Amino acid sequence: MALRIDFYHLTRDRPESVVPPLAQRSLDAGQRLCVTAGDGALLDRLSDALWAWQPASFLAHGRADGPHAAAQPIVLSGGMAAPNQARWLMIADGQWDGVAGCDRFERILYFFTPDAIDSARQCWRTLSRGDVEAELNYWKQDGGKWVKGP
Fold first, then answer.
1. What are phi and psi of 45, to 5 degrees?
2. Which of 24, 36, 56, 77 gets the most CB atoms within 10 Å of its CB?
3. What letter would DSSP give residue 71?
4. pLDDT in tens, 58-93
5. Residue 69: its pLDDT value, please?
6. Strands (DSSP E) along the chain, which ranges?
7. Which of 33, 3, 140, 132 lies closest to 123, judged by CA?
8. Which residues is 3 bridged to in the sheet?
9. If phi over 0 gives left and psi between -120 and 50 gives alpha, with beta otherwise, what is residue 43?
10. Interstrand relation of 134-142 and 3-9 (parallel, antiparallel or unpaired)
11. Does the pLDDT at position 122 exceed 70?
């Protein structure tokens, strides 16, 4: 199966708003997930969002460096480490060179905000060179839904 990389252009919402519903989709697909961000404060906000996403439930998760990380369906990591053997990766902070860690995952969801658009474009160009065999998709926010872009 070829690698699928989805670029999510966050023009309206913050990662804390979009990660929980997409994390739920990964779990519904039977996948374990690693969510990465270099900023510890963002990881804290993501953790809070996963716990509080729906009033009647929560999305079980833990830190990659925490106890029982290998058993967690979702791990939050400061890097590309996925001790839960996740095959899906979410890059929540827009910080990625487009190559690092590709070989360990089947699907990568790469979130970037308007202030990181130059980095995202560079990442797209790097991946488009063909060094990594991947299906690239671009998603943008249109009101309250995601629309696949050109």
1. -65, -40
2. 36
3. G
4. 899 999 999 999 999 999 999 888 999 999 999 999
5. 95
6. 3-9, 33-36, 62-63, 74-77, 88-91, 107-112, 134-142, 145-148
7. 132
8. 134
9. alpha
10. parallel
11. yes
